[in-house]
C-alpha cells in the first residue's frame, strides 16, 4: 500500500488545492476512508459527505475522480500475493504431514514380545484399579449421603432452636425495658408532686 500512497498523496494534495481547501486536514480524512476495508459504495458515500462541506456542485464528479485515481495507484499484484503465499504454505504443510505418516517403525520379534508383556501388565493393573475404585465409591457414597443429610437436618434444627431462644430473650428484654420506663415515669411524677407540695408550703 506504500507505493499507492506515495503516488496518490501528491495528486490528492494538488486536487484539494485546486478546490481551494486545506489539503492537510481533508487529505488525511480522504486517505483514511480510501484505506479502510469498506466497499466502494460506502467509500463514495463518505467522500461525498466530506466534499459536501467544501463544494456546492459537481460533488459526485470529484468523488469518482478520487476513487479512480486511488484504484489506478493501488498495485494489482498486492491482492494476489497473499493467496499465493497461502497456497504455497498449505502445500508445504500437506507434504510434511504425508511424510510423517508414511514413515512407520517396524518392531523386531523381541520388541513385540516386550511390548505385549507391558501392555498386558498395564491392562491387568487398570482392571484391578477400576474394581477397587468402584468398591470404594459404592461404599463411601452411601455414608457420605446419610451423614450429610443428618448433618444438614441437625444444623437446621439447631438454627431454629437458636432463633427461638433469641426471640424469647428479645421479648423478655423488651418487657423489662417497658417496665423500667414505666417505673421511671412514676418516679418522675412522684418527684414533681413532692416538689409542688414543698413550694406550696
UniProtKB/TrEMBL annotation:
Residues 190-201 have a biased composition (Basic residues). Residues 3-75 form the CCDC43 PWI-like domain. Residues 156-189 have a biased composition (Basic and acidic residues). Keywords: Coiled coil. It holds the Pfam family PWI_CCDC43. Residues 126-201 are annotated as: Disordered. Residues 127-139 have a biased composition (Acidic residues). Residues 140-149 have a biased composition (Polar residues). It comes from the Eukaryota. Belongs to the CCDC43 family. This is Coiled-coil domain-containing protein 43.
Amino acid at each position: 500500500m506504500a507505493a499507492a500512497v506515495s503516488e496518490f498523496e501528491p495528486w490528492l494534495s494538488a486536487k484539494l488545492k485546486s478546490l481551494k481547501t486545506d489539503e492537510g486536514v481533508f487529505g488525511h480524512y480522504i486517505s483514511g476512508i480510501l484505506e479502510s476495508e469498506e466497499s466502494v459504495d460506502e467509500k463514495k458515500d463518505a467522500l461525498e459527505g466530506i466534499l459536501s462541506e467544501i463544494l456546492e456542485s459537481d460533488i459526485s464528479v470529484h468523488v469518482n475522480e478520487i476513487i479512480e485515481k486511488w484504484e489506478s495507484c493501488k498495485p494489482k499484484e498486492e491482492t494476489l500475493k497473499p493467496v499465493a503465499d497461502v497456497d504455497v504454505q498449505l502445500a508445504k504443510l500437506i507434504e510434511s504431514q504425508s511424510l510423517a505418516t508414511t514413515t512407520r517403525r517396524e518392531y523386531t520379534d523381541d520388541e513385540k514380545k516386550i511390548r505385549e508383556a507391558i501392555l498386558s501388565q498395564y491392562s491387568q493393573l487398570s482392571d484391578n484399579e477400576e474394581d477397587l475404585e468402584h468398591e470404594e465409591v459404592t461404599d463411601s457414597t452411601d455414608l457420605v449421603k446419610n451423614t450429610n443429610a443428618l448433618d444438614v437436618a441437625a444444623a437446621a434444627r439447631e438454627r431454629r432452636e437458636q432463633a427461638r431462644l433469641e426471640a424469647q430473650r428479645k421479648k423478655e428484654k423488651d418487657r423489662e425495658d417497658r417496665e423500667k420506663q414505666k417505673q421511671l415515669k412514676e418516679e418522675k411524677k412522684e418527684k414533681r408532686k413532692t416538689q409542688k407540695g414543698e413550694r406550696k408550703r
